[in-house]
Amino acid sequence: MENETDKEVIEETQENDEKEGEDFEDFEDEEDSRDIVVPGEVLTEDTKNFLPGRGTIYNSERTKIISLNIGLKQIRKNYINVIPLRGFYTPRPGDKIIALVVDKNPVKYKCDINAKDFGTLKPKNTIKRGKMRSFRGSGGSGYPQDEANIERFEIGDILIVKILSADRLNKPELTTVGKYLGKKNNGFVISIDPPKIPRVIGRNGSMIKMLKNLTKTNIFVTQNGRIWLKGEDIAHERLLVESIQKIAAEAHTVGLTDRMQEFIINEKKIRGIE
Hints:
Blueprint: H1 4-15, H2 17-23, E1 36-37, E2 42-44, E3 51-52, E4 56-58, E5 65-67, E6 71-76, E7 79-84, E8 96-105, E9 108-112, E10 119-121, E11 158-165, E12 173-175, E13 182-184, E14 188-191, H3 197-201, H4 206-215, E15 217-221, E16 226-231, H5 234-249, H6 256-271
Parallel strand pairs: 3-7, 10-12
Antiparallel strand pairs: 1-6, 2-5, 4-5, 6-7, 8-9, 8-11, 9-10, 11-12, 11-13, 14-16, 15-16
Helix pairs in contact: 4-6, 5-6
């Protein structure tokens, strides 16, 4: 039976498709350029009308804009970006992501968040809202002395967490306090390159809505390239996994949503699933 956290995640995946589409803008427009560029490639010499954006810089004379990455050239307003085809996740405060507990001690959990650095989850950031109380000797700080309120996790646990803070000097700090956050007991997680996550979402959530409807599977997609899913049976889950892998492989192509819809419908007929 699904626990309360699982039900909450399913509800969120049903309610927030369009919001997800707004959060992931890198690949949202099918009309964007699909030109693949390499590091050092000149993207434009028109530096009067264009500025370097993500993944691009001026040359030393500031007469050209060149690429820093292997990726897709993208023009947004007067900015030229290069969206990498591969790469690590860059943590940002407020992101909801999927983390794996890889180590623990009495003062913190060490979590793999598919980034350059591991994330840190402190016990004080696992206490559910409304359970913090002041105790004698706490100086009125509200710091919990009743350890019964602290969530307990084990190595190998899959968590949905939020980034509290992240910068170049400190490892990302995480929390499980908040709606839809906490340990996942059902379903399973797959990973793709984080830069390709926007294509799994689609413009205004178009791709993820189609995937959910045709495979009858709940999906929770996160910025760090990890995707939680749970279907009504193994056949639908397997089809969804194969579809997501196909999306990742063809993320640089045009017309992907329509092509994926045709692929899933044909595969359901071939496999004899409804």
